[in-house]
Amino acid sequence: VIQLEDRDFLFHTIRPKEVSAKEIWIQNFSDKDISLAVEDIPAHIKIELPEKLESRKPQRLKITLDGSAIDTRGRLISKFKLKTKSESGQTETGFITVAANFIDDFGKLTPAQKKESPTIELPATLVDFGKLKKRGKAISQQFTITNKGQSPLILHSISSDNPLVETIALKNKTIQPGETTNVQLRISPKKVKSSIDTDVYIICNDARGPVRQIKVT
What we know:
By secondary structure, this protein is an all-beta fold. It has one helix at residues 111-115, and strands at 2-4, 8-14, 19-28, 34-39, 45-48, 52-53, 59-66, 74-86, 91-102, 120-121, 126-127, 139-147, 153-160, 166-167, 174-175, 180-187, 198-204, 211-216. The strands form 4 sheets. The chain has a 5-stranded mixed beta sheet, with no helix packed on it. It has a 5-stranded mixed beta sheet with strand order 11-18-17-13-15, with no helix packed on it. The protein has a 4-stranded antiparallel beta sheet with strand order 1-3-7-5, with no helix packed on it.
């Protein structure tokens, strides 16, 4: 039996050319050694793990993210396979999730440039769908985004890690100074098996707050 300290690696922000790493414990609780292998690794992720997990010995699994291997901005969710093989030949496959917010590099902006940058404003940070009827039709709710800054606000991505919360694609991901746009969220009650408590992540080019979150219940 293999146990991992966590199956979700959650990174906050990654800038271009930035490298960030996290480690967890992984342990084999069986009486015999188990072989490990990984598959479907994206180019921006590097995995370091032992080829064999010795019986009852805690070992480390390390994941490193390389910002230089990503040429887009926004929240990116990646999954890769972790495969085990016992000495008897029995195999099992599990999944590890890596989530990160890839943002612009604001380090070279002067104070004047930051002052003239876009400013995202969210009048509300909670979207409550209330009680859903199991056989009901899909329900939509919305929240607004306003650009209170001096230059265009670019919305790199708006998404939820929970696949039950669907973000309706925006026609225009650029908001001019002083303008407001509505963001539609949709949930299909037929797919909901239990209560929902998740976040919608907004990744944008606001130098003072490139990552914003809306709670969805």
